[in-house]
Amino acid sequence: MIAIEDVGTPRRLLGAFARILAAGALLTLAGCVVPSDGPLTHEVLSAGADGKSYEIPQTKLVFDVVNVDQRVANSVSAAKRYGLSSTFGFGGGGGTPVIGVGDHLEVTIFEAGPDGLFSTTERKSTTIPVIVQPDGHGQIPYVGSVRFAGMTIDSARATIVDALKAKAVEPDVIVSMAGNASRTVSIQGDVNKSGIVPLGLSGQHLSEVIAMAGGAAKPPYDTYVSLKRGGKSRSVLLQSVIDNPKDDIYVKPDDQIYLTYDPQTFAALGQTKKPGKIRFDAAKLSLVEAAALAGGGNVATADPKGYFVFRYEDENVYRSVVGDDRFRDLIARGMVADSEGRYPIVYRLDLGATQSYIVAQNFPVRNKDVVYLARHVATDLAKFLTIVSSGSSAAYNIQRTADLL
To answer: Where does the Soluble ligand binding domain lie (predicted)?
Structure first.
């Protein structure tokens, strides 16, 4: 026969276990990590080179966090970015062009007498077409083989006149370029007429060569132009070639030009109303305009003091913003450039300050920037209280079940 106290023992054990489950549920909720959608403002600041989290071993990327004021905005806006001239130089007007292999020449020879080698009673001259052969030579009657490759038009004329003085009657010669095969550039990609473009004797600017190819097929603010010369290459926005005359460099024979349609975009992340990849659809874009394209911030969750722009910046711009000493210090700490020689930086704008809306009008957003609006710290607290509240209800039900046992 089973005793009554023996029957109560399992119930007491089950009740104690239930109370342990209730306490464990509350402890788990109290120690949980609140779900987030990006770092808080203080976490971004702490991740910078001077932040508290800088010395954490996992933090390998060294960068500076810079507060955007009028000086910084002006420095970023006015600083010159590396363009084509920084890589290739501006060049000259083609120098003194010379004849090359494949060129099509027209050699017109005049004589004073009516019955000369190149004249008759009806005409005083004869025009001879000459194509410069692979060995650099071309044939002229009564002169023979003439090496044209490497000669200027004037020197070619003088050579032919000298060779004819003892054979023709008071000869005179005109040499003209009928077809240019040796002084050409190739242009491909998003142009209206790709192909081989011959260069004139006076030299052409990059914009002129693009025009000779029918112009860009897409808007210049969404088109990149790449120039390859020898072992060097560089790409810039076609709009910068238009806006900056120093980037409208002289092209040289055998240059390779490629136009690529790649719309300028920035990524809007965090507490913006329209997060995602957003196109500029304009030649230039300010931070205020970018914020508007992203729909502004979510009033209930955004931290106006935490509006950030993440980017890789050219060295000269970086130095103009932080100063040479600061830049050298960051390099000493381990800051490294990307494959294009640019360095990581984070710009911070405090939208809680009235003047920030004026400053932001002069701060340019660049292609591939990440514009991030941090959430307010109170958002995490609200999430935590919601979780605890729902968890407390569950714990209460567990406890009540235990009390009934």
So the answer is: 185-235
Token duo for residue 226: 């790449």
Q: Which residues share a beta bridge with 285?
A: none
The reported pTM is 0.71
Report which of 356, 347, 267 is spatially closest to residue 304, judged by C-alpha positions. Answer: 356
The answer to whether residue 2 scores a pLDDT higher than 50 is no
Q: Is residue 92 one of the residues assigned to a domain?
A: no
**Total residue length of the chain:** 405
SS (H, E, C) 62-86: CCEEEECCHHHHHHHHHCCCCCHHH
- For 226, the domain range is 183-261
Residues 216 and 195 in one domain: yes
Of 161 and 115, more confident: 161
Distance from C-alpha of 213 to C-alpha of 194, rounded to nearest angstrom: 6
Residue 189: partners with Cβ closer than 8 Å, 6 or more residues away: 258, 259, 260, 261
Q: Is the dihedral of CA 247, 250, 254, 259 positive or negative?
A: positive
Give the residue from 114, 148, 179 where a domain finishes.
Answer: 179
Q: Is residue 30 part of a domain?
A: no
Residue 94 domain-assigned (yes or no): no
